[in-house]
Amino acid sequence: MLHDHKVPAVHPAPGSGTTARPPRCVLLPDAQRRPAVACTPGEEKAARERLRTLELRIQALRADLARIRSLLSELEDRADAL
């Protein structure tokens, strides 16, 4: 299920006297991965690279989880055999 993600407004810290930085370029989690806010081409490229890095990390974590489950199953089988 896709959720409607909204980019929160960025506000300066109270009393800081500075203006807020615009939000970083964030890609929406839809099939087209459209930017949620107006981005420069460089910001969009960086956002796509961050997303790809996160996807690769998730893939590696899923593989680690599968190995852990396999080892746990093997340990449970050995414990049952005792």
Automatic annotation (TrEMBL):
The keyword Coiled coil applies. Residues 44-78 form a coiled coil. Keywords: Coiled coil. Residues 1-23 are annotated as: Disordered. This is Uncharacterized protein. It comes from Bailinhaonella thermotolerans.
